[in-house]
């Protein structure tokens, strides 16, 4: 099944102005998206992958097909001097060729020294498939600024089914489009090992790959909780600094991401304790953690859209204070809270954490969403705003 990716149109427009970098998890659809932008005949080579021996030789000798109007350079960041090399290609050829660079790692962190490419490219993040993308619901920036939950063309039954499919199968194209829990499980069973054995080994210096694979599996039990490196160190009998470094590597390679706390000292907010989530939310160990992880990826998608496409300063955080109040997600705009989201599996009374926060801070939009619940109403006024109780699908369909 082919699904139009929302970023494709944005990338096409950006390529007319500068190079475009597209980064994201391995197997989330970067290559398919890139090849879909190539309009040249198959006989004209436009796509080059550093992992392919023949392509690597062509790249090293700068023997790119001059007949191609667009060059797609995949995994080029694995070349030690890729930035200097790419700067030379771009400065020499940008008037006649468009250049799209894709990679399954944070390209900004794999510079390996050399001259800066600053000002020569636009950067985008390709995420797993989101609910609105899966449902092919039109999206506008105004949707996520107003959160107008009017009638859309998708029935509640259909949108809920799509959400549950995403929750179970994940948002990566291969397991999602298999439509099979068994096939998705088989794909996922080896994902962590492939990430370590194929990506880590080509970019990082790690000796104990077996223990690193065990850590990746162990992290599935930490989703939704404050991350304790000390606990992981004890479980794996490995040093604190080693565990910390391995998690940072997983972040650089789009295996996991962390979000950090938000809140002023007057409400006793914690400052340093991160929460960890997978880019593949179906890796999470329990249904509740998987659902929270799914919402985290959807909100991060919104944050990256606002950063990459509109150039606005958005951040994804959470709230937790020293006496136990917590709100799952806070979206900041220019450092100020714009949105608060508390995640539940079923309909519940107003959560004490979000109530505590709204009694002390003004937040324009606040939601308590549920996976299986039916409630859809605006809660009572609090000092800092009101909480909208809604099924999760309604909120997620408004995100990019």
Describe this structure in words.
- The chain has about 400 residues and is of the alpha/beta class.
- The protein has helices spanning about 5-15, 30-35, 55-60, 80-95, 130-135, 140-145, 155-170, 175-180, 180-190, 190-205, 210-220, 230-235, 240-250, 285-310, 350-360, 390-395, and strands at about 20-25, 45-50, 70-75, 100-105, 120-125, 255-260, 275-280, 315-320, 325-335, 335-345, 365-370, 375-380, 385-390.
- The strands form two sheets. The protein has an eight-stranded mixed beta sheet, sandwiched between helices. Strands 2-3-4-1-5 form a five-stranded parallel beta sheet, with helices on both faces.
- Helix 3 links the parallel strand 2 (about 45-50) and strand 3.
- Helix 10 (about 190-205) packs across helix 11 (about 210-220) and helix 12 (about 230-235) packs across helix 13.
- The two termini are about 20 Å apart.
- The relative contact order is 0.11.
Give a quick precis of the structure.
By secondary structure, this protein is α/β, with parallel strands linked by helices. The protein has 16 helices and 13 strands.
| Outline type | globular
The poorly predicted ranges are 111-115
Count every beta strand, where a strand is a DSSP E run of 2 or more residues: 13
* Tally of helical runs: 16
Percentage of residues in strands = 15-25%
Structural class: alpha/beta
Strand order of the largest sheet: 7-6-8-9-10-11-13-12
Supply Rg.
22 Å
User: H/E element string?
Assistant: HEHEHEHEEHHHHHHHHHEEHEEEHEEEH
Average per-residue pLDDT, rounded, comes to 90
Percent of residues in helices comes to 25-40%
């Amino acid at each position: 099944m082919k699904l139009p990716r929302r970023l494709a149109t944005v990338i096409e427009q950006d390529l007319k102005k500068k190079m475009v970098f597209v980064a994201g998890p391995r197997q989330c659809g970067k290559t398919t998206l890139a090849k879909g932008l190539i309009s040249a005949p198959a006989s004209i080579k436009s796509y080059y992958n550093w992992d392919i021996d023949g392509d690597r030789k062509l790249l090293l000798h700068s023997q790119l097909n001059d007949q191609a109007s667009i060059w797609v350079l995949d995994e080029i960041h694995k070349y030690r001097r890729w930035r200097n090399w790419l700067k030379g290609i771009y400065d020499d050829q940008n008037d006649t060729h468009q250049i799209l660079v894709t990679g399954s790692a944070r390209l900004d962190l794999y510079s390996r020294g050399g001259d800066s490419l600053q000002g020569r490219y636009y950067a985008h993040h390709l995420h797993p498939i989101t609910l609105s993308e899966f449902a092919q619901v039109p999206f506008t920036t105004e949707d996520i600024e107003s959160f107008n939950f009017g009638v859309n063309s998708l029935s509640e039954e259909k949108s809920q089914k799509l959400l549950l499919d995403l929750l179970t199968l994940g948002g990566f194209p291969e397991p999602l489009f298999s439509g099979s829990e068994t096939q998705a499980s088989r794909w996922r069973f080896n994902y962590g090992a492939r990430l370590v054995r194929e990506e880590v080994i080509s970019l990082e210096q790690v000796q104990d790959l077996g223990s690193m694979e065990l850590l990746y599996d162990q992290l599935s039990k930490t989703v939704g909780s404050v991350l304790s490196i000390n606990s992981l160190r004890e479980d794996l009998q490995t040093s604190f600094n080693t565990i910390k470094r391995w998690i940072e590597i997983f972040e650089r390679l789009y295996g996991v991401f962390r979000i950090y706390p938000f809140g002023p000292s007057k409400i006793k907010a914690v400052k340093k304790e991160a929460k960890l989530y997978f880019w593949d939310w179906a890796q999470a160990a329990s249904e509740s953690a998987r659902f929270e992880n799914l919402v985290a990826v959807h909100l991060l998608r919104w944050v990256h859209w606002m950063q990459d496409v509109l150039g606005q300063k958005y951040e994804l955080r959470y709230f937790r204070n020293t006496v136990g109040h917590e709100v799952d997600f806070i979206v900041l705009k220019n450092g100020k809270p714009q949105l608060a989201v508390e995640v539940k599996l079923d309909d519940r009374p107003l959560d004490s954490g979000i109530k505590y926060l709204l009694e002390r801070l003004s937040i324009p939009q606040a939601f308590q969403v549920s996976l299986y619940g039916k409630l859809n109403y605006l809660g009572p006024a609090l000092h800092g705003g009101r909480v909208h109780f809604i099924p999760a699908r309604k909120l997620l369909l408004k995100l990019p």
